[in-house]
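Worked example 2:
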Amino acid sequence: MSQDAATFRAEREADWQQLEALLKRIENRSPKALSDDDLLALPLLYRSTLSSLSVARATLLDRALIDHLEALSLRAYLAIYGASGGFGKRFARFFLTDWPGAVRSLWRETIVALLILIAGTAAGYLLVQGNPDWFASIVGEEMAQGRGPYASAQLLKSILYDTDHKSDGLKFFATYLFTHNAQVSLMCFALGFAFGVPTLMLLFYNGAALGAMLQVYVAKDLGLPMVGWLSIHGTTELFAIVLSAAAGLHIGTRIAFPGPLSRLAAAARAGRTSGIAMIGVVVMLAVAGLLEGIGRQTINTDGTRLAIGGGMLIFWLVYYYGPKFRSRDG
C-alpha cells in the first residue's frame, strides 16, 4: 500500500469501521437493533463513505481499498434504501399505512372533488325536473337502457326488483361495470395534468348523469328504492371516482402552482402520492364491481341494500380517516 493510501485510510478508517459495525447489526438482526443515535449516524456515515470512495477513485488509490469501499457503500445503500422486509411486510405496509396515508394527504382535493360531484348531481336533477327533455342530452342511450322520464313506473320498478330481468346479465355485469368505471376513474386522474380543469368537468358531467337518472325515479315515487339499488356498489364506486379525481387535481395544482420547485419536479413529487392513491382506487373499483355483479343483483330488499351500501361507506371512511392511521400520516 502506498504512503498516500495509508494516510488516507488512517484518517477515515474509523468511520468505515463504525459503519460496518452498524451494518453487521442490521444484517444479523434487524434495523430495530439500532439505537436512535445509531439510526441518525447511519446516513451520515454512508455519505462519508461515499465521499471517501469518490476521492479514492479520483486519486487512483490502490484497487483493494476501492473495492472495499464500493462493497461497504453498496451494503449501506441496501440497508438504508432497500426493502425493509419481505413481500408480506411490504404488502401489509401498503394496506395499513401507505394507501390510507396517501388518501389522507389528498383531503383538500377530495373535498373539492366531492363538492363538484354533488353540484353536478344537483344540476342534472334540477334540469330534468324542470324539463324532462334534458334527460336525453345528459344520459346516453347505452346508460339509460330504456330508463327515462317517459318510461312507466312499472318498467322502472321491474328493473330494480325483477329477478328474471337481472339474471340475464349477472355473469358479465361486474366485469362491464368495473371496466366502465375504471375508465372514468383513470380519465379523471389523467386529465388532472391539464391543471385539473378537464377532471372537474368530467366529474361534474358524471354527477349530472347521476342526478338526471335519480330524478326519473323520484318522479315515479321510486327514489328510495333507486338509492338502495345504487348504494350497494355506489358508495364504493363513487368514492373511488372522487379519489381518482382528487389524485388528478393534486398533480394539476402542483403543476399550476409549483412553488420553489420546477413544474416537472413538483409534478414528480405529487405523482408519488397520487400514484399510491390510484393503486388503491383500482382495488376499490374491483370491490365495487363484485358488489355490483353479485350483491346488488341478487339482493332485492331495500333495507339490506341500504345497509350494505352504508356499511361500505363507513368502512372506507374509517379505513382512510380513522384515528389508528393518524399517527402514521405524513
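Residues 157 and 222 are 7 Å apart (CA to CA). Confidence is low (pLDDT under 50) at residues 165-174, 325-330.
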